[in-house]
Amino acid sequence: MRKQLILALLIAIGSLSLGGCQNNEAPAVIEQDDKEAVVKVKEQAPLDKGKIIQLPSDNAEYAILKAGGVDIAMVYDLQLGSQRFTQVDAWIDRYDKGKFTSMIGVVPFEFINAADPSHQANHEYKLYYTFSKLDSVEQEKITIALREDQGLAMTEMTQPLKDLTSGIVHSLPVEEIIPGKTHDLALLAWNKNSGGTTSDVEETIKNNELVYVLRCKFTAAEGSQS
């Protein structure tokens, strides 16, 4: 039932707005001289490699998710630029007392119409990581989802609820999407007493009892610029 609720919430969010952007493909310029028609192609514009932007805390999407019982939500706008991608892998790495203990999720989300060079530049993509305490049981539910316009793919998993009271969230902006590279999106740290986070991922892992690192990696379409 809860899975259907989260699914309905994310689909409802998708109906709020649909974004778009201009196609950056350079047009051909035809010039005529006295002997023959010569086709010259304008010099290609610099590649827009895209970026990942976390939605601000006052965005309506957070209010909708929290109204549905989500405790923590991290929502990202994937601005893919002029690159083309076949998929994005999304997951969470868990570290307990400075040591890696598990990989949560590892979800390969495929992009539709990846072969169409204009498709991804004209559609809206959102990546979701949500955390919820399940009612009446000592379990935590984690949801990872990708929304493409109003289409949605998602996965859910549960694990024992952590016995830690102090939580800190630290966002890590991604100014350039690099195919094949693991991008760190955020650090979520918990402690029984005090702790702290910085933009230094390794330092944060070392100085907190429990740390989640939200991560993703993009795969470029064959023949795509990089």
Task: Report the sheet with the most strands, covering strand number, pairing sense and barrel closure.
Answer: 5 strands, antiparallel
Structural class: mainly beta
Mean pLDDT, all residues: 80
Q: Estimate the strand proportion.
A: over 45%
Number of helices: 3
Give the total of beta strands: 12
First-residue to last-residue Cα separation? 42 Å
Question: Keyphrases for this structure?
Answer:
globular; 5-stranded antiparallel β-sheet; 226 residues; mainly beta
Task: Explain this structure.
Strand 8 and strand 9 form a beta hairpin. This protein has three helices and twelve strands, in the order αβββαββββββββαβ. Residues 17-46 have low confidence and may be disordered. The longest helix has 13 residues, at 2-14. Strands 3-4-7-8-9 form a five-stranded antiparallel β-sheet, covered by helices on one side. Strands 6-5-12-11-10 form a five-stranded antiparallel β-sheet. It is mostly beta strands. It is globular and about 50 Å long. It has helices spanning 2-14, 60-67, 201-206, and strands at 28-32, 37-41, 51-54, 72-79, 85-96, 99-110, 125-133, 139-148, 151-160, 166-171, 182-191, 210-220.
